[in-house]
Automatic annotation (TrEMBL):
The complex is composed of two ATP-binding proteins (CysA), two transmembrane proteins (CysT and CysW) and a solute-binding protein (CysP). This is Sulfate transport system permease protein CysT. It comes from Alcanivorax xiamenensis. Belongs to the binding-protein-dependent transport system permease family. CysTW subfamily. Keywords: Membrane, Sulfate transport, Transmembrane, Transmembrane helix, Transport. Pfam families: BPD_transp_1. It is found in: Cell membrane. The chain crosses the membrane at residues 12-39, 59-83, 95-116, 136-154, 186-207, 240-261.
Length: 275
């Protein structure tokens, strides 16, 4: 007795999908791992555990985490304003959210450096009045990573907010719940999966960012040098194996963190579904 296939040509489609994914993702990642492992265990460990590399890991993941957390809060706020309120220029503001997607990252880096540099529009006051340096400091890296990661949270949360029924909020208000309690008990549980997804996308985008950071960071070893910049420096020195070793390390760290975020999201969905 033959089984009825839901999708005609499933085997052929699966073959093409597997081939495409292998060519674009799996084979390049395997080549990266093979190039890094070719150094040997001792040399590989010496490269990835070098103090300069460790400092770049801390800055890369630390700045990415801070930027993703900022986007988690303000991305939700931006999505809330765009969905729940009507105001002049709303369509323009909604379109501007996607600007980091279309703008070349190098252009974003130059623009942010011009704004937050010592003589920039914002930098001259931040550094001159309060002594807070943004450009060529870790704070500048956070600003750049926040800029390129904001659309991921907004565009992930926005459709979920649009789909929430206003009747639930009205019912909570009729039962005596204030606005904060309504948000925390009614709206937030429905938004958590989208928020976690937006956070993960923003974090992953920030970890691998290069173009917008290279101009505003200053690229000072042990201080403002992120791992992608260190990898590029090794490539300029024709140290391909060392660059691959750092790439493998970043790949492993990123995979573990994203796996943890997805596990947290799965646990949250199970908790909501199972009560």
């Amino acid at each position: 007795m033959s089984r009825n296939r839901v999708i005609p040509g499933f085997g052929l489609s699966l073959g093409y999908a597997t081939l495409y994914t292998s060519l674009i993702v799996f084979i390049p990642l395997a080549a990266l791992a093979a190039s890094g492992i070719s150094l040997g265990a001792e040399t590989f460990w010496a490269v990835v555990s070098h103090p300069q590399a460790v400092a770049s890991y801390k800055l890369s993941f630390g700045a990415s985490l801070v930027a993703a957390l900022i986007n988690l809060v303000f991305g939700l706020l931006v999505a809330w304003v765009l969905v729940r309120y009507t105001f002049p220029g709303k369509r323009i503001a909604d379109a501007l959210v996607d600007l980091p997607f279309a703008l070349p990252t190098a252009v974003a880096g130059i623009a942010l450096t011009a704004l937050y540099g010592r003589n920039g529009w914002f930098g001259q006051y931040l550094e001159g009045w309060w002594g807070f340096k943004v450009a060529y400091a870790p704070a500048g890296i956070v600003v750049a990573l926040t800029f390129i990661g904001l659309p991921f949270v907004v565009r992930t949360v926005q459709p979920v907010l649009e789909g929430l029924e206003r009747e639930l909020e009205e019912a909570a208000a009729s039962l005596g719940a204030n606005r904060w309690r309504t948000f925390r008990r009614v709206l937030l549980p429905a938004l958590v999966p989208a928020l976690l997804t937006g956070f993960a996308l923003s974090f992953a985008r920030a970890v691998g960012e290069y173009g917008s950071v290279v101009f505003i960071s200053g690229n000072m070893p042990y201080r403002t040098e992120i791992t992608p910049l260190l990898i590029y420096s090794k490539l300029e020195q024709y140290d391909y194996a060392g660059a691959s070793a750092l790439g493998v390390t970043m790949l492993v760290f990123s995979f573990i963190l994203l796996l943890a975020i997805n596990a947290l999201q799965y646990w949250n969905l199970r908790r909501q579904g199972g009560g």
